[in-house]
Amino acid sequence: MAKQVSPGVLALRKVVEDVYADAREAKKAGKLVGWSSSKFPCELAAAFDLDVMYPENQAAGIAANRDGEIMCKAAEDLGFDNDICGYARISLAYAAGKRASRKIDLATGEYVINPASGKPLKDENGKVVIDPETGKPKKDPKTMQPYTVLDDIHEIEALPDGREKDLRREAIKPYRQMRMPQPDFVLCCNNICNCMTKWYENIARMCNVPLIMIDIPYNNTVAVDDTNVAYVRAQFDAAIAQLEKLTGKKFDEKKFEAACANANRTAQAWLRVCDYLQYKPAPYSGFDLFNHMADVVTARGRVQAAEAFELLEKDLEEAIKNGTSTTPFPEQYRVMFEGIPCWPKLPNLFKPLKEHGVNVTAVVYAPAFGFVYNNMDEMVRAYYKAPNSVCIEQGVDWREGICKNNKVDGVLVHYNRSCKPWSGYMAEMQRRFTADLGIPCAGFDGDQADPRNFNEAQYETRVQGLVEAMEAKKAKEGNA
Ligand code: SF4
Hints:
The structure is a single chain. This protein is α/β, with parallel strands linked by helices. It has 3 domains: 1-14 and 252-328, no CATH class; 32-96 and 176-246, Rossmann fold, CATH 3.40.50; 329-479, 3-Layer(aba) Sandwich (Rossmann fold). It has helices at residues 7-28, 42-46, 55-64, 68-77, 86-95, 153-158, 163-171, 195-207, 226-247, 253-275, 286-298, 303-322, 346-355, 376-384, 392-405, 420-424, 426-437, 456-479, and strands at 33-36, 51-53, 98-102, 104-105, 110-111, 148-152, 185-189, 211-214, 333-338, 358-363, 410-416, 441-446. The strands form 4 sheets. Strands 2-1-7-8 form a 4-stranded parallel beta sheet, with helices on both faces. Helix 4 (68-77) packs across helix 5 (86-95), helix 5 (86-95) runs parallel beside helix 8 (195-207) and helix 13 packs parallel to helix 18 (456-479). The longest helix has 24 residues, at 456-479. It binds iron/sulfur cluster (SF4).
């Protein structure tokens, strides 16, 4: 039976689909489409009615659609090192025109099906059908997929008009992240990390488009000093002047204020949604939050995003009343998941957690997008607070607050090969917050986008170890 999806979740899905569809339409109509880092102040572009897309969200979607590896390898073939963040590699390959495509037989126009793909065929009793000739399970033909190959839009566009050009255009994988329009300008803010700066400089160079950069440096103190605010405010003014030149329009104060109001309303609703994980048992899982991040990244300045999150709040209120949860198992243990998930391996991440009754009831990544402010200076201060741009004291404080409020029994840390700034200071941070809170913690090696860096056996062993430690702690507390 198809999984029941709540009205809030449906509304959130539509918001993201609309963001991508609007950008495709804008491009077709000859309007400017930009690419932006996820924590660039989107309110500035909204003042000019610009359609903006988000490569980090796109890369996560490509990775979740299992095309992260082919795109990462394409970037490596272009000369980018495989130590660079997987999101950056996927995006750089895409900016260069590389696309994951379905293998097509140009003579017949048919896709070439990969015999290793697909799910086992089941009979009317739900039993797997065995092929009498091979003795192996038969594949359900409806679930089988063509081979994935790499294509290049520049090569395709250079072909003469005709059948091959049409077939190859059509063969590009038909999900929205693989059909995102190329950029006419790029917006970069390095409050996330400095990899971002080089990544966007390279997109601007490869696509020959302007780069609008806002530099928000790493902050060594918990408070954001007034001089830092002045430094970033001046850059907002410079970005506005660049956008005026690019669009030939004047900065529209009213549109800017409307976008700020929407962004604040979205952020507040988003933070309230995150807080529903504090309920015990939780009405949903941190994995659901990861899925909803697409909205807060791509559409936080749109009123529809705020409305969809408010609808989701109502769904969650109802779930609390009815004692239901989207988590398909009884919650025995509650953990904080530290870092970005391994998008290509979500089912593998989920499996041992489900087996051991472990619900992810806290995440650090999601609430980090809740930018709330009342004026321009506060807006600067809000954009200063990204997970990788704050000092270790602030990072420890955030985590201890989330662990306590969300009543976790343990912590699962993703040492993410892609994200050096995050993983680099994680060992010390982990040592400090686990010592302060006295909860067990286990780490595993993985990657948010490149599946070559994840080892399922290691992950399962680490989850098992964490469960044993949480079990022992509970038993000890029970005997005390
Ligand atoms: S913060 Fe980490 S995951 Fe995000 S772009 Fe930078 S290196 Fe990549």
